[in-house]
Design a protein that fits this description.
Ancillary SecYEG translocon subunit, YfgM, membrane, mainly alpha
Length: 277
């Protein structure tokens, strides 16, 4: 056994003490930072994460009931009693949507719920209600330009269908992501046609068609709108795909999809090919 010299131990202790004096403050700050992160995460899990879970659960219930209502309304043999029952259920659904938005207004769940409510209002021809609901949706700041664009386009379409062409035009002229340029240009064409500005309508429709041509995406309703104004366009041949790809892609998992825009457009087209009235 080899004894360590006492003076060596004293030297080591003194060296450690000097190092502690030199770096001790940094070590304390590092420990405090680690503790702050740990307890901050614990606080988030106990509070905000719980809030997100509550909002998600509320939206899931709304989504399930919405789907049930949609399926029920497809029944062509509904009698008056059944229709009244569905109307009452829809009223309760709206109440739950309003409660979700009031409690969790700046979440994607609130945005999705408002999209559902606006769709029901549009189907019921409650255009004033749809305009108000979609206006509320556009005010939600989710830091997602795509979701904002969807809300804006739907809002403008509801305003157009409700006869507010100037309001719709103001929204349609706002900047949007390039992925929505075809829909924005088609919307502009609908608005200009409603204002009887035919040359502007032709130009906007043509712009939309050219954007779709670049993407090799066909849109039959747009082709009909162009043809009705005397503009003949070459058909767009979609690129063959080895894998079957659906026509619409989800915006967010479990939520509304891009077809919401086309749905409102289709509703408008059944009323008038251009104006939605």
């Amino acid at each position: 056994m080899i004894d360590t010299p006492k003076n060596d131990n004293n030297f080591t202790d003194q060296k450690s003490l000097n190092a502690l004096k030199l770096h001790g403050e940094k070590i304390i700050y590092a420990v405090l930072l680690v503790l702050a992160v740990f307890f901050g995460w614990q606080y988030y899990q106990k509070n905000y994460a719980k809030i997100d879970t509550v909002a998600a659960d509320a939206y899931t219930s709304i989504s399930v009931r919405d789907e049930r209502l949609v399926q029920a309304y497809l029944n062509p043999q509904l009698d008056e009693v059944a229709k009244q029952a569905l109307a009452e259920e829809e009223k309760q659904l709206f109440g739950d949507i309003d409660a979700l938005v009031a409690a969790h207004g700046n979440t994607v769940y609130a945005w999705q719920a408002l999209m559902i409510k606006a769709r029901h209002q549009t189907n019921n021809n409650d255009l004033d209600g749809a305009v108000a609901t979609l206006s509320q949706a556009t005010s939600i700041n989710l830091d997602d330009d795509g979701l904002t664009a969807i809300a804006k386009i739907r809002h403008a379409r509801a305003m157009l269908a409700n006869g507010d062409t100037n309001g719709a035009l103001s929204i349609a002229n706002e900047a949007m992501p390039t992925a929505f340029e075809a829909s924005r240009q088609e919307l502009l064409g609908d608005i200009y046609h409603a204002k009887n500005e035919i040359d502007n309508a032709k130009s906007a429709y043509t712009n939309a068609w050219e954007v779709l041509r670049e993407r090799q995406e066909n849109r039959a309703v747009l082709a009909l709108k162009l043809q009705s104004l005397g503009v003949n366009v070459e058909p767009i041949e979609p690129t063959p795909s080895v894998v079957s790809i659906p026509n619409t892609q989800p915006v967010i998992e479990g939520g509304e999809v891009f077809e919401m825009i086309e749905h409102d457009s289709a509703v408008a087209d059944t009323q008038n090919p251009h104006t939605g009235n």
